[in-house]
């Protein structure tokens, strides 16, 4: 039975390098969290339509896995044939709206599984073109790297060699809205890091970077997030950092 782990990520650092239309270009280190994952299973069963089971807060049409299915079925009739005979079951453990990339990770893992099960023989680069249509963070999960430097708005993913990190997480029950936080950043906190600094950051090991950094220096979006979600500051602790647009805080052990 095809079954696979769909891991969470954290952003060790997240710096803004510029604007692109309504979006912001980033320089970020994405690291896979081995201790937190959803489980995706394709279970043999006759289905009259694409069937997705799991504890999601959104309806199926907005689910990243459904979006991936819609895109993949355009590539081969084998996809629809397969899901007429299999349902998708996702055991959700990664909290939503948490900056842990759960929805993005599910979409990428689903794409990788379909590529294998339906024998689509698509390269990672081809799969990334589909991934990017679903969300900016999806390409990172397609490559399955432990650690990577991510730029553009998420479409440039470069493997970074370092030890696997043991990451501790705290996710307050605060649903951070990514769009709102970027807006606050653009209106009140806008700064850009220059390419020279990005070059240096991208060469530094995550542990070394964190050992001499602070939460707001590591993540440009923490200050605006804290203005909108005032309770975040109750979770601030020495050597703890903020992932993406939150609300997860993390520490590398
Ligand atoms: C910033 C990151 C880093 O990992 O935060 P997390 O989602 O992980 O917390 C992600 O790239 C987030 O990607 P994603 O969660 O897919 O964002 P989207 O839903 O596409 O964006 C919601 C809104 O946020 C703003 N946005 C998003 C990404 C970006 N690079 N610049 C932006 O300005 C845009 O206004 C967009 O309309
Ligand atoms: N497969 C999925 N798993 C989790 N959330 C999903 C999924 N598909 C769509 N979503 C929606 O994506 C949004 C949150 O995305 P998620 O990746 O979990 O968090 P974050 O962007 O904070 O890392 C929510 O609106 C959620 O309902």
Automatic annotation (TrEMBL):
Keywords for this protein: ATP-binding, Isoprene biosynthesis, Kinase, Nucleotide-binding, Transferase
Name the UniProt record assigns to this protein: 4-diphosphocytidyl-2-C-methyl-D-erythritol kinase
Active site: 9, 137
Pfam families, alphabetized: GHMP_kinases_N
SUPFAM superfamilies to which the protein is assigned, alphabetical: Ribosomal protein S5 domain 2-like (SSF54211)
Principal EC category: transferase
Residue span, GHMP kinase N-terminal domain: 63-143
Taxonomic classification: Bacteria, Pseudomonadati, Campylobacterota, Epsilonproteobacteria, Campylobacterales
Organism encoding this protein: Halarcobacter mediterraneus
Keyword Nucleotide-binding set for record: yes
Gene coding for it: ispE
UniProt-listed InterPro entries: GHMP_kinase_C_sf, GHMP_kinase_N_dom, IspE, Ribosomal_Su5_D2-typ_SF, Ribsml_uS5_D2-typ_fold_subgr
Family (UniProt): Belongs to the GHMP kinase family. IspE subfamily.
UniProt-listed GO biological process terms: isopentenyl diphosphate biosynthetic process, methylerythritol 4-phosphate pathway; terpenoid biosynthetic process
PANTHER family linked to this entry: 4-DIPHOSPHOCYTIDYL-2-C-METHYL-D-ERYTHRITOL KINASE, CHLOROPLASTIC
GO molecular function, one term: 4-(cytidine 5'-diphospho)-2-C-methyl-D-erythritol kinase activity
């Amino acid at each position: 039975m095809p079954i696979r782990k769909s891991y969470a990520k954290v952003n060790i650092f997240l710096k803004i390098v510029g604007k692109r239309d309504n979006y912001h270009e980033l320089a970020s280190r994405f690291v896979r969290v081995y201790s937190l994952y959803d489980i995706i299973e394709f279970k043999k069963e006759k289905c009259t339509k694409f069937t997705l089971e799991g504890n999601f807060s959104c309806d199926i049409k907005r689910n990243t896995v459904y979006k991936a299915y819609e895109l993949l079925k355009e590539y081969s009739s084998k996809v629809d044939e397969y899901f007429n005979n299999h349902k998708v079951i996702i055991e959700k453990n990664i909290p939503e709206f948490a900056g842990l990339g759960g929805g993005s990770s599910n979409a990428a893992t689903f794409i990788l599984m379909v590529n294998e099960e339906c024998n689509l023989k698509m390269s990672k680069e081809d799969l990334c073109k589909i991934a990017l249509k679903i969300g900016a963070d999806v390409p990172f999960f397609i490559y399955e790297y432990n650690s990577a430097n991510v730029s553009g708005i998420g479409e440039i993913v470069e493997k970074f060699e370092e030890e696997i990190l043991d990451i501790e997480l705290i996710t307050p029950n605060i649903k951070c809205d990514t769009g709102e936080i970027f807006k606050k950043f653009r209106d009140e906190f806008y700064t850009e890091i220059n390419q020279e600094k990005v070059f240096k950051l991208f060469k530094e090991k995550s542990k070394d970077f964190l050992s001499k950094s602070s939460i707001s220096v590591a993540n440009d979006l923490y200050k605006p997030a804290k203005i909108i979600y005032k309770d975040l500051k109750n979770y601030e602790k020495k050597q703890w950092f903020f992932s993406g647009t939150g609300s997860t805080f993390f520490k590398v052990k």
